């Protein structure tokens, strides 16, 4: 199997998962989930792999890596302890819908799969940081304008653990900018280490 064919297969897998996630959100009468970072990321990662736009793939991983790791930790804890530690995966237990449980598993595999293939191609570009920052700003305003405070999609309205007051929007943006930059340098280091082997 050629690298191009493999890229496309991976791309169609992510794109399919993302479109199914969006469709499920609409059918569940939760259109606000259309602007969730994780669903947007799945679709853009899929497009990036299909059309060999690795810069696009990288930018999504920079946004999703840290939240996906935290989600996975809380999910594994909930499986072992019977309840969520951070409250992030509570919705899995509140909604007895197998499709929701299945689609949510993308938090576990999206980042490892994408990072693995990016490092194989040695194609991790610093420009991805700025693309991710642009998307973070765009998604912030989309979430504020098209979703409710009750749904708090992407946590744009408030932090569920801390009351950060009026400074919250600035803290939110700077936190995601920082996570994106740190994720880039970690992925770059992994890519560099793989080159030396």
Low-confidence stretches: none
For the secondary structure, the number of strands is 0
The gross shape turns out to be globular
The total number of structural domains is 1
Question: Outline of this structure?
Answer:
This protein is mostly helical and 197 residues long. Helices cover 72% and strands 0% of the residues.
Structure, described:
With 197 residues, the chain is mainly alpha-helical. It has one domain. It is built from eight helices and no strands. The protein has helices at residues 3-27, 37-50, 54-81, 90-94, 98-104, 106-120, 127-146, 168-195. Helix 3 crosses helix 8. The longest helix has 28 residues, at 54-81.
What's the SSE blueprint?
Layout (H helix, E strand, L loop, with lengths): L2 H25 L9 H14 L3 H28 L8 H5 L3 H7 L1 H15 L6 H20 L21 H28 L2
Helix pairs in contact: 1-2, 2-3, 3-6, 3-7, 3-8, 6-8, 7-8
Write a concise keyword list for the protein shown above.
197 residues, mainly alpha, 8 helices, 0% strand
């Amino acid at each position: 199997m050629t690298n191009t064919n493999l890229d496309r297969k991976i791309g169609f897998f992510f794109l399919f998962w993302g479109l199914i996630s969006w469709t499920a959100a609409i059918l569940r009468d939760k259109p606000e989930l259309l602007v969730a970072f994780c669903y947007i990321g799945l679709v853009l990662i899929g497009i990036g792999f299909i059309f060999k736009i690795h810069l696009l793939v990288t930018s999504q991983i920079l946004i999703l890596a840290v939240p996906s790791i935290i989600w996975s930790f809380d999910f594994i804890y909930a499986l072992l302890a019977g309840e969520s530690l951070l409250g992030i995966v509570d919705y899995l237990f509140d909604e007895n819908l197998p499709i929701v449980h299945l689609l949510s598993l993308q938090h576990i595999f999206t980042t490892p799969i994408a990072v693995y293939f990016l490092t194989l191609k040695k194609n991790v570009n610093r420009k991805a940081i700025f693309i991710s920052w642009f998307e973070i700003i765009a998604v912030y305003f989309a979430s504020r304008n098209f979703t409710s405070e009750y749904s708090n999609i992407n946590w744009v309205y408030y932090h569920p653990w801390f009351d950060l007051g009026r400074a919250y929007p600035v803290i939110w943006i700077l936190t995601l900018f920082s996570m994106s930059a740190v994720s880039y340098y970690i992925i770059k280091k992994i890519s560099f280490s793989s080159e030396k082997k």
